[in-house]
Amino acid sequence: MAENPCMFLVARIGWCVDSSDGQTCQYHDLMNRAGEDRRFVPVAAFTIREDAERRMRELELEAARLFNPFWRIGPLFALASQPEALLPRLAVIAGSLPSDAVANGSASRRVWCEWWDEHVPDWSDETLWEVWSLFDQIRFYAVLEIEVGDE
User: Fold this and answer.
1) Which one-letter DSSP state was computed for residue 25?
2) Which residues pair with 17 in a beta bridge?
3) 6-50 pLDDT, tens per residue?
4) 80: in domain
5) 1 is a domain residue
6) Is residue 38 included in any domain, yes or no?
7) String of b and e for 103-113 (b: at least 16 CB within 10 Å)?
8) Half-sphere exposure at residue 60, Cβ-oriented, CA atoms within 13 angstroms
9) Contacts of residue 70, Cβ cutoff 8 Å, sequence gap at least 6
């Protein structure tokens, strides 16, 4: 008996933004850790995983150009699974960090937001992807493998 074929679904991850004061944002269930009832919006389907991953990367880059990860409320380490490596790797890839971050090891969220907004327009897609990959706790899209049956 033949194995059930698979489709690879590019999905926009379901999460919500709460900006009750109009200036700061909170992201609930950002990485969609809701368990088996994952919330997502289908965007495209492919028969080849690499094609789905390519499209997911394109969509994630579009989102990264619009979304400033420093808008997120909470500690900086919540943005990355390896927080101790975030600033050194960011400095290497981006070429510079806010002066406050270099001088005393920290900078206000406002300083980071301004730094991001100032630098992103000049980054190539490759540079943006490298930087965005550091913020691996924030994702807008995922590739889901779906079995396609005869039923």
Assistant:
1) B
2) 27
3) 999 999 987 655 555 554 444 444 444 544 445 678 899 999 999
4) yes
5) no
6) yes
7) eeeebeeebbb
8) 25
9) 109, 112, 113, 115, 116
